[in-house]
Specification:
Length: about 170
């Protein structure tokens, strides 16, 4: 089922999420819904708070449905190692149309659980490193606009308020 994606400044986007403790059918349905909602919105990553669910899980598919092995489900993920720095453009389904450069680690190692509750590790660089950090930030209640300089962020927030007033946000 496609669920609506919530946008900034919806409070759930800025609240830390709760750990997932039950690995059941309900969780599988939630993950299916997250993939469906993400594909419908043409995104490459989606965190549970973005569909209004305050749980620590995220899905990523950099292949955008091209590759069945490209589907990543990360439950209770944590970044365990980082390396280097990259300054690249990023976007977010909860902040549509906004693209800005932010600093991220160039490489990350993440530990997470799968749908059966088993722990695994995944390493990513370039776009995958960026997606992992962006999505895990969501689970900590951090949006990418809060990774920018205050100056850039203020400009963006002003633009959003203008769009809100015009009924276009
Ligand atoms: Ni996002």
């Amino acid at each position: 089922m496609i669920r609506p994606i919530v946008k900034y400044p919806e409070p759930i986007l800025q609240q830390p999420t709760e750990l997932v403790t039950e690995f059941n059918e309900e969780l599988r349905t939630l993950v299916d819904d997250m993939f469906e909602s993400m594909y419908a919105a043409k995104g490459i990553g989606l965190a549970a708070p973005q569909i209004g669910v305050g749980k620590r899980l995220t899905v990523i598919d950099l292949s955008n449905q091209e590759n069945p092995d490209g589907k990543l489900v990360l439950i209770n993920p944590e970044v365990v190692e980082t390396q280097g720095r990259l300054y690249e453009e990023e976007g977010c389904l909860s902040l549509p149309e906004i693209r800005e450069k932010v600093v991220r680690a160039a490489k990350v190692k993440v530990r997470a659980q799968n749908l059966d509750g088993e722990w695994f590790e995944i390493e990513g660089e370039e776009l995958l490193a960026r997606a992992l950090q962006h999505e895990i930030d969501h689970l900590d209640g951090v949006l990418f606009i809060f990774r920018m300089s205050a100056l850039k962020r203020d400009l963006i927030l002003r633009k959003i308020r203008k769009l809100q007033r015009a009924g276009e946000w």
